[in-house]
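Whiteboard transcription, Tuesday session. T.W. wrote the structure tokens on the left side:
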């Protein structure tokens, strides 16, 4: 399964779910708008590849690469 941190810049995907067993992490991601079925676009990467900037609807969110690796996409 692909992960959010594997997207190319400008690529859009749909969130398929979350990887791992941390309910607090999942709750935090959902609070930020990362919910199953939501479309996200990777808009930028920092020079070293971390953090990532993703657009969810009209909101742009900076997300650490390690956290983005916990988001499964399709």
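and on the right, the sequence the group agreed on:
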């Amino acid at each position: 399964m692909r992960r959010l941190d594997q997207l190319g810049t400008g690529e859009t995907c749909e969130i398929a779910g979350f990887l791992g067993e941390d309910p607090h992490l999942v709750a935090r991601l959902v609070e930020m708008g990362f919910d199953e079925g939501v479309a996200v676009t990777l808009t930028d990467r920092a020079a070293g590849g971390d953090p990532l900037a993703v657009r969810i609807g009209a909101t742009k969110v900076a997300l650490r690469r390690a956290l983005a690796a916990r988001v499964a996409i399709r």
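Someone added at the bottom: Helices lie at 23-31, 65-68.
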